[in-house]
Amino acid sequence: MAKDRPEPDLDPELAGLSPELRWREWMRRIEAVLFASASPVPREDLARVVGQGVSVDLLIEDLTADLEGRAFEVAKVAGGWMFRTRPAYAPAIRVAADVSEQVLGLNEFDVAVLAAIAWHQPITRDGLKDIFGNEISRDLIGRLRTRGLIGTGPRSPRHGAPYTYVTTEQFLVVFDLETLQELPNCEQLEDAGMSC
Prior knowledge:
single chain, elongated
């Protein structure tokens, strides 16, 4: 989250510039903020670097058009925007760049448990056991938490008040979702040959 107070030397209005140069500078400010941020930047934070009443959405649209043909793009995920490398360049990145720490290393069962948490959150380990028919290991829950994909939700109102699990903003970022409403529904899963 950005600071609540503006920098003293930041002039968001840029009244001394022509409208075209002002717009271009606002686009570059948004570009700089997105470039520097490791997480999605919400509209409210981007609005702090541009003039009052300026449409952040229109600036993002123009920035997106400006980046056409480049190796990266602006992606709307987890309620904000961030830069992403275009998928076409993933093989080149894996060959030449050190991204080993970023690999999730999830197997098919891990992804299935993660999907169950996303669809049924908040959910307890017992709730996951009901879905999968066997106990979900603490190690698996720990791996998903370590990767920042799930977090602890509210305590269950059952006897013993077990922990519940929910997905995180990082889950949305990793799976390129703006909100959980973008998850496929049962009908879509069945059309893809999966059961829910």
